[in-house]
Design brief:
The chain has 2 domains: 175 residues, Rossmann fold; 89 residues, Alpha-Beta Plaits. It contains 10 helices and 7 strands. It is globular and about 55 Å long.
C-alpha cells in the first residue's frame, strides 16, 4: 500500500511538472505579442503551433517552406493540422535547391537552416511579426545538429527548449490536447537520407520520397530509405523488422522500390536509429 501511494505521488508530481512547463511556455510565447512558428507538421512544431495559438490567438501564424526536401505527405499533413488548430498557415514555395546545400557537406543543415529561417524571418517581419520560433526541444541538444548554430545567428528562439520541455513531455501534452501528432514517428527532411558528400538533386529526393511512400503504404510507421547512389538501404524500427521476414513481401517491396530508379535494395539489420547517417562523422 505504501509503495502504491509513493507511485501515485510520483505520477501526480510528474503531471504537475509538465503543466508547469506548459504554463512557462505560454508565458514565453505571449511576451512578444505576435509570433510565427516554423512549421513542418512534425510532433514538436505542431505542438508549438497549438501553444502559440493558445497564447496569442490570431496574432500567431505558422510558416512552412515548401521545398523538394519536404515530402508532399508532410506538407498535406501540416495543412490539416494547422486547420485543426485554427492557426493561419503561410506556405512559401522554394522549388530550387541552393548550390551549397546541394553539395551536401557535413554542415548542410547549417546552410539550409540559415536560408530557410532567413526566408521565414523576412516573411514574418513583412507582416509586422517580430519573432520566429522553431520547435527544438531539450532532447535535441544530444545529437549532431549544426542547424542550431544558424538559429542562434538569426536570433530564432526555441521556446520549447527554453521552457524545459523534452520530447516525452511534448508527446504527453499533445495527447492531452488531442493533437493527432502526439504519437507521430520522428521525421527529418529527405536530404538526411543521402550520405554527406554525395550530391543532392531533385531526382534523388523524388525517388527517396516514392520509396518511403511505398513503406508507408505497407503499414510501416518508423522508417527511412537511405540513398547510397544506386542502392536503397531500408531502415525500419527494430520492432517492425519481423514484418520483412516473408519472401513474397521482400520481393514486392524490392521490385517496387527498384522501379523508382534504384538498382539494389538493402536492409539495415539492426533497424532504424536516429542519426544513423552521422556515424561517419568524428565523435
Amino acid at each position: 500500500m505504501v509503495e502504491l501511494k509513493k507511485e501515485v505521488t510520483r505520477e501526480t508530481e510528474t503531471k504537475e511538472a509538465i503543466i508547469e512547463k506548459y504554463q512557462r511556455l505560454l508565458h514565453i510565447l505571449a511576451v512578444p505579442g505576435k509570433g510565427a512558428v516554423a512549421f513542418s507538421g512534425g510532433v514538436d512544431s505542431s505542438f508549438l503551433c497549438y501553444a502559440a495559438a493558445a497564447a496569442l490567438g490570431t496574432q500567431a501564424i505558422a510558416i512552412t517552406i515548401v521545398s523538394p526536401m519536404l515530402p508532399k505527405s508532410e506538407i498535406q499533413g501540416a495543412a490539416l493540422i494547422a486547420q485543426k488548430i485554427g492557426i493561419e498557415h503561410l506556405l512559401i514555395e522554394e522549388s530550387e535547391l541552393d548550390e551549397t546545400v546541394a553539395a551536401n557537406p557535413k554542415e548542410r543543415c547549417y546552410f539550409c537552416k540559415k536560408l530557410e529561417f532567413g526566408t521565414m524571418l523576412a516573411a514574418a517581419q513583412a507582416r509586422g511579426i517580430p519573432i520566429v520560433w522553431d520547435g527544438s526541444n531539450l532532447d535535441d541538444l544530444g545529437d549532431y545538429r549544426p542547424g542550431l548554430k544558424a538559429l542562434e545567428e538569426l536570433h530564432i528562439q526555441s521556446p520549447l527548449r527554453e521552457a524545459g520541455l523534452t520530447k516525452a513531455d511534448i508527446r504527453e501534452l499533445s495527447r492531452r490536447f488531442d493533437l493527432p501528432t502526439w504519437d507521430k514517428p520522428a521525421f527529418a527532411c529527405l536530404a538526411s537520407r543521402i550520405p554527406y558528400g554525395e550530391r543532392i538533386d531533385q531526382a534523388k529526393l523524388a525517388k527517396i520520397e516514392k520509396a518511403e511512400d511505398t513503406l508507408r503504404a505497407w503499414g510501416f510507421r518508423q522508417f527511412r530509405v537511405r540513398c547510397h547512389d544506386q542502392i536503397a538501404r531500408i531502415e525500419v524500427a527494430p520492432e517492425e523488422r519481423r514484418r520483412f521476414f516473408d519472401e513474397a513481401s521482400l520481393d514486392r517491396i524490392s521490385q517496387t522500390i527498384k522501379s523508382y530508379g534504384f538498382v539494389y535494395v538493402a536492409f539495415e539489420l539492426e533497424g532504424y536509429a536516429m542519426g544513423n547517417m552521422n556515424r561517419v562523422l568524428p565523435r
